[in-house]
Amino acid sequence: MKNEIHVVFAVLPNVHLIDLSGPVQVFYEANQFGAHFNIQYCGLDSDVDVVSQQGLVFKALQSFDNFDLNEGDYLFIAGIDFHSIQDGQLKVGYNKFFEWIQDNYKKGVNICSVCSGTFVLAASQMLNNRTCTTHWKCTDYLKKNYPNIKVINDQLYVKDGNMYTSAGMTSGIDMALFIVEEHYGPVMTSKVAREMVVFLRRTGGQSQGSIYLDFRTHIHPSIHTVQDYILQHPLEKNSIENLAEMVNMSDRNLTRLFRKHTGISINDYKTRSRLAHAETLLRHPGYTIDFIASQCGFKDPRQLRRMWKQHYGKSPSEFKLSN
Asked: Residue 304: left (phi > 0), alpha (psi -120 to 50), or beta?
């Protein structure tokens, strides 16, 4: 197929299912919108079943050495059980696999890891003198055991050349969406994110905490509905009256419950969500401040600049130049 991009997922013993299935689903959904990702899977040995950490068994996986990847293709290393890593899983039986990763990297294949998959790359010596990330609870162990690697503690994913590493679990989805955008642009990425009910793609430079996560630790369904609506409709005024009517509450009750369950006011949440959306758009080199303001619900570029300065201490133009 013309312009087909191969994406091979290495399914290793004790693999975590979400580390594997999240990015797989991104590329699958992208194909439904016209992308051309050829999704495949490999294991260490075609004669040995792979048992995931959650108990699901993978049978008859092709051995990794049956795959001939080309420049521009992708190899994903899904995360494996961290305790298995500590117990020495990567010390026996992985040498040929490590060599295969190194050979693919030299050919220009993009190498990607999700969560603790970073340790596979570290053990293969692929990350020496490189920048990477992994799950927050694994970073100290990674630093201690691989001192030649520069580990970023609080970032969703890191791209260093054609080496991609992501943080914990669902951040693999964010990294895969970023890859889709690199090839097919933000319009397709937004379609995929919406299909997967990922309201707005989080960028690599964003903290592992964000507007999409930090204020959703409650279980109140009506407040979730209001939050979802605000995130999905940044161009609307989203008045408290309209939001309250949406969830069959009084204005006063919604205002009280929203602050109780999220810790911030509705207006503050609206501002933060618009700024988060603006941050995503600011990373696009072709978008002007005027255009971004118009897409994020700000009255004009001046309001965007003022609110950005208040929250981040610098202008959006300075942020755009630094990214």
From this structure: alpha
| Segment 167-188, tens digit of pLDDT | 878 889 989 999 998 898 877 8
Question: What CATH class is the domain 5-186?
Answer: alpha beta
Any idea of the CA torsion for 284, 290, 292, 296, to the nearest 10 degrees?
Answer: 180
pLDDT tens column, 143-153 = 999 999 999 87
For 9-45, the pLDDT digits (tens) are 999 999 999 999 999 999 999 999 999 999 999 999 9
Q: Does domain 211-322 have CATH number 1.10.10.10?
A: no
Helix (H, G, I), strand (E, B) or coil at 291: helix
Q: What is the mean pLDDT of the chain?
A: 90
- What is the distance, to the nearest Å, from the Cα of residue 270 to the centroid of all Cα atoms in its chain? 23
Supply the pTM of this predicted model. Answer: 0.68
Residue 186 CA: distances (Å) to CA of 161, 263, 286: 21, 32, 11
Round to whole Å and give the CA distance between 89 and 120: 10
Q: Are 169 and 115 in contact (CB under 8 A)?
A: yes
Using only C-alpha atoms, the chain has a radius of gyration, in whole angstroms, of 21
